[in-house]
Amino acid sequence: MPEAVRLRKRRSVLYSSAGGAAAQRGAGKRGGAGPGGEGRGAAPEGPVTDKPRPRRCGRTRPAAGSRSGAADAQLLPRPDQLRPGRVLAVSGGGASHVQLSLYLTQIWVPRIAQAVLAAFADVQLYSLVQHLENSETAKFVFFCQLCSWFTWYSCTRTLTNTMETILTIFALSYYPIKGSKMGNSCKYLALVALAIVIRPTAVIPWIPLVFSHFLQEQKKTNLILHTCIPVGLVTVGTSLIIDRVFFGEWVLVQLNFLKFNVLQNLGTFYGSHPWHWYFTQGLPVILGPHLPFFLHGCALAPRRYHIFLLPVIWTVLVYSTLSHKEFRFIYPVLPFCMIFCGYSLKHLKAWKKTAASFLLLSNLVPALYTGLVHQRGTLDVMSHIQQLCKNSQQSQAFVFILMPCHSTPFYSHVHCPLKMRFLQCPPNLTGNESYVDEADVFYSDPLGWLNKEFYNDTLLPSHLILFNVLEQEISSFLALKGYEKTATVFHTHVPQGRV
């Protein structure tokens, strides 16, 4: 049986206090600590008071004129704070500038940097096709890449899948394809290695490409000894050193990744899909309106283009063997697909302008909707929580996010020592067949869980954030404990399940 994956225990120095540690020790009698030191029966960190205090409640409810689909974040000020609808005063100009700088640095700068890298990657894709074919074909490939709704949706998100895709495009531009003048074995292998360090799944689309390169390479010994081994040693060595610094011990993260997701298949804890999902839903959805052009391009493209189709088929096949599936997992093969879409568009004759207009308009709607409207509430609500950092009662505030775990960002969007907690959902690393995570326990009986967890008023959070579907179930708890709704944040037009 594979060795269990070990997770590193972390503790934030900034967001902890001696009072909080004592409170957790006192709560240990009610429940053991979960991953990260968060106990299911733990009291909030920091000082607590014995006298009742008004509560804040954030939740989701329907927007005016609709039955469902909006998210509300309700924040109730204490009597000594400004009432809802008033502008909060910021005390201390210096502190506000520091918080603004932190907000811009930690939220917007990564997104802008990701967008800039994605733009450079698009240009590299254009250059690659230009060297392989001609400028006209490159323009159509570039147009298809820019039109893709899923590219717009994903390219600025700070996900490892996004960086994996960007590095894949850069590496592909240096891949030694017959007819390309940009081929450079050392550069493309170094970029592939970097992508694997960032996200080990990056190796999947490159397995057939590297194997094909090896078969066609005349100086195979030189390729292995002078390129592959040096690049591999430098990459693995750098990865080991970085992980040694942060974990405090020698860890091969890529091996742990393999054990967790493949050998132990623990990804199924977060959902599973049938084997054909990527063929019937995953790839068709991320291609969207490009799908007919992709199929047409595959049938029309010359033999030398088959090297771009091979990673697509191979990647989808490999991911289909894993139970846990997501759209973003196959995002790295989308640029390969765009090459065929552009080739198809270029060779259309009578319908070229019509097809281009169709691609632009049909992708524009889902790109704008998913990027600006759909499921935005869990991000927008963080601006309400951020306001607590400017309040003089910050040390007594305690935010509890009663949503499916990881619904919202955490301290990356709240740059102050504000006490926060969310429902935990760590995977079952112990092999316990009866294991149920905290989030599932809560949703099985929300009202009973809250009454048991907060049996003493001194343990109550000062703010609650939840989706509107939960409101009716726990309405008696909210009324009894004095919570009031103070803000509404739209989330989605298509609510389902716990959202």
UniProtKB/TrEMBL annotation:
Annotated compartments: Endoplasmic reticulum membrane
Transmembrane segments annotated in the record for this chain: 189-211, 223-242, 275-295, 307-323, 329-345
EC number per UniProt: 2.4.1.-
Presence of keyword GTP-binding: no
Compositional bias ranges of the Gly residues kind: 29-40
Region (Disordered) location: 1-77
This protein's GO CC annotations: endoplasmic reticulum membrane
Entry's Gene Ontology molecular function annotations: alpha-1,2-mannosyltransferase activity
Membrane protein topology class: Multi-pass membrane protein
Keywords, comma-separated and alphabetical: Endoplasmic reticulum, Glycosyltransferase, Membrane, Transferase, Transmembrane, Transmembrane helix
GO aspect biological process, one term: GPI anchor biosynthetic process
InterPro entries: GPI_mannosylTrfase
Family: Belongs to the glycosyltransferase 22 family.
UniProt function note: Alpha-1,2-mannosyltransferase that catalyzes the transfer of the third mannose, via an alpha-1,2 bond, from a dolichol-phosphate-mannose (Dol-P-Man) to an alpha-D-Man-(1->6)-2-PEtn-alpha-D-Man-(1->4)-alpha-D-GlcN-(1->6)-(1-radyl,2-acyl-sn-glycero-3-phospho)-2-acyl-inositol intermediate to generate an alpha-D-Man-(1->2)-alpha-D-Man-(1->6)-2-PEtn-alpha-D-Man-(1->4)-alpha-D-GlcN-(1->6)-(1-radyl,2-acyl-sn-glycero-3-phospho)-2-acyl-inositol (also termed H6) and participates in the nineth step of the glycosylphosphatidylinositol-anchor biosynthesis.
Protein name: Mannosyltransferase
